[in-house]
């Protein structure tokens, strides 16, 4: 043979980074000895796999894929293909013996040792000159040992006859005796060696093309995944930077809003404290006056005679009545609760950063922000903002949820004549009228469909025009009603906000009066 099939590794750049030398075991890093093939198509030496099997299963040292093994050895069978390549790669180091004199010829004698392709035997130089110079060996093909032919006919191990046929059914070589022993049906799958070789080469070429296509796709997938890994790393870095930036911005905004809220709380405190102290001072001066007049009244009753009583009593009565009728601020004019709605304010300052929905302010009265005026009305969060901040506002009046609906009949039964009840009555009438029209059109269309199904013809074909005309009218009425409802939506929304604001203010005042009562 010509020598090694696979050249030694020239460096790390000679192979792909993910691969290795095809004849080197990835565990012991030496040439394979009795290579074994696992179900995952990874090869290892039999010695490297010995003792790794457990419960009839062998785990691949590279990919951890499980391979079922049989027999007491706990090893898969030796891969004949890879063993052939290993043996062939070592032909340059083999020691051959001359077929006549048994003279050993090593690698250094490769140029002086010959091989007879006709006899299929190696010959030393002396035996070639002595035994193959006769005329009967004149047509023998004698070449240098390194150039010997690979097409030497092998012989059957059972009959010692050369192989002449190949069974495409059993994928085995056949000699003439093996061919004769086969059944007639099996002989139909036998071809000569040359044809079998050509067919095998074609199939192998197709398999190689498939593997090459898979190899190309795998490399492209690796490049793509490497790019995606880099993109994931870059995206994670960008996201972390964005999180840090947003968090820093949120801290700055919250710090600014915190200062404003504390100023608002301080302003409310100073205003309420001043008002309550002024009222307390007034009541503190009123109480001794009342006590003095009560003492005067008691002393006058005990000391004055009837004449004196009649002379001075009415003056005392007028004085007491004047004191009692004077307006005195006995009740607190405002609530003692200081509320700056900090949750809503913090949420509002974060809206531009978190891209939350718009928030509503109080409607017709032109409500001001809490930070702009201490005594301004509360800011309401509308249903268009699904932020959980609305749940934390602690409003005294719970806003109706979108899932809560009030029956139109109940609204109409309350008897209050408001724009909303008028709208409900008109809407209810329009809805019933349109519903009746739609049911009429539906019945007519069903009747036409029944005629088509039973009679395969339109019995009342003249009503189709009426149906189309009425359908257009109903569609126009629906569009008109929709436009009307959309036009009233903003009006009713403003009315609802005003009513809600009024109830909230009244309940806040009521809660402020409750401790005094």
From TrEMBL:
**CDD domains, per this entry?**
Bbox1_RNF207-like
> Biological process GO terms, please?
positive regulation of membrane repolarization during ventricular cardiac muscle cell action potential; regulation of cardiac muscle contraction; regulation of heart looping
Task: Quote the subcellular location field of this record.
Answer: Cytoplasm
The record, for SUPFAM superfamilies, names: RING/U-box
Instruction: Tell me which residues make up the RING-type domain.
Output: 25-64
Q: Which residues form the B box-type domain?
A: 93-145
Question: Is the keyword Nuclease assigned to this protein?
Answer: no
Q: List each coiled-coil range.
A: 424-451
List GO molecular-function terms, semicolon-separated: Hsp70 protein binding; transmembrane transporter binding; zinc ion binding
Give the stretches traversing the membrane.
Answer: none
One family from Pfam that matches here is: zf-C3HC4
Which keywords are on file for this protein? Coiled coil, Cytoplasm, Metal-binding, Zinc, Zinc-finger
Output the Gene Ontology cellular-component terms. perinuclear region of cytoplasm
Q: Which PANTHER family match?
A: RING FINGER PROTEIN 207
This one is known as RING finger protein 207
Q: Which species is this record about? A: Hipposideros armiger (Great Himalayan leaf-nosed bat)
């Amino acid at each position: 043979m010509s020598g090694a099939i696979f050249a030694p590794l020239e460096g790390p750049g000679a192979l792909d980074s993910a691969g290795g030398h095809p004849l080197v075991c990835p565990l012991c890093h030496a040439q394979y000895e009795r290579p074994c093939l696992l179900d995952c198509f990874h090869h290892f030496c039999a010695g490297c796999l010995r003792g790794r099997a457990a419960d009839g299963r062998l785990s691949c040292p590279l990919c951890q894929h499980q391979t079922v093994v049989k027999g007491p050895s706990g090893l898969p069978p030796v891969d004949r293909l890879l063993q052939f390549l290993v043996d062939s790669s070592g032909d340059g180091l083999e020691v051959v013996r001359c077929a006549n004199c048994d003279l050993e010829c090593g690698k250094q004698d490769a140029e002086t040792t010959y091989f007879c392709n006709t006899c299929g035997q190696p010959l030393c130089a002396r035996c070639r000159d002595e035994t193959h110079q006769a005329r009967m060996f004149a047509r023998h093909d004698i070449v240098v040992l390194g150039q010997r032919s690979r097409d030497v006919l092998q012989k059957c191990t059972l009959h010692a006859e050369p192989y002449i046929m190949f069974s495409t059914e059993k994928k085995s070589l056949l000699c003439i005796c093996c061919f004769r022993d086969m059944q007639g049906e099996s002989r139909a799958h036998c071809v000569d060696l040359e044809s079998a070789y050509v067919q095998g080469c074609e199939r192998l070429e197709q398999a190689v093309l498939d593997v090459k296509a898979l190899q190309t796709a795998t490399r492209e997938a690796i490049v793509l995944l490497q790019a995606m890994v880099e993109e994931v790393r870059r995206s994670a870095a960008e996201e972390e930077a964005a999180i840090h930036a947003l968090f820093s911005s949120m801290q700055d905004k919250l710090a600014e809003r915190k200062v404003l809220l504390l100023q608002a709380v301080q302003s409310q405190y100073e205003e309420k404290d001043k008002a309550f102290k002024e009222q307390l001072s007034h009541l503190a001066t009123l109480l001794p006056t009342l006590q003095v007049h009560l003492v005067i009244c008691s002393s006058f009753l005990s000391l004055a005679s009837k004449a004196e009583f009649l002379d001075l009593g009415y003056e005392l009565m007028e004085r007491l009545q004047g004191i009692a009728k004077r307006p005195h601020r006995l009740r607190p004019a405002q609530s003692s609760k200081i509320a700056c709605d900090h949750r809503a304010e913090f949420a509002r300052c974060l809206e531009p950063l978190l891209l939350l929905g718009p928030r509503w302010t109080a409607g017709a009265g032109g409500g001001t922000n809490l930070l702009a005026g201490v005594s301004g009305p509360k800011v309401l969060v509308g249903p268009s903002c699904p932020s959980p901040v609305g749940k934390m506002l602690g409003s005294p009046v719970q806003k109706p949820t979108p899932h809560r609906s009030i029956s139109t009949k109940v609204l109409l039964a309350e008897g209050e004549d408001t724009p909303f009840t008028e709208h409900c009555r008109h809407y209810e009438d329009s809805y019933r009228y349109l519903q009746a029209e739609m049911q009429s059109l539906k019945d007519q269309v069903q009747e036409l469909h029944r005629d088509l199904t039973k009679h395969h013809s339109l019995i009342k074909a003249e009503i189709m025009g009426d149906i189309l005309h009425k359908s257009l009218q109903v569609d126009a009425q629906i569009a008109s009603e929709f436009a009307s409802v959309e036009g009233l939506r903003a009006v009713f929304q403003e009315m609802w906000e005003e009513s809600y604001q009024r109830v909230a203010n009244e309940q806040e005042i009521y809660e402020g009066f409750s401790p005094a009562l």
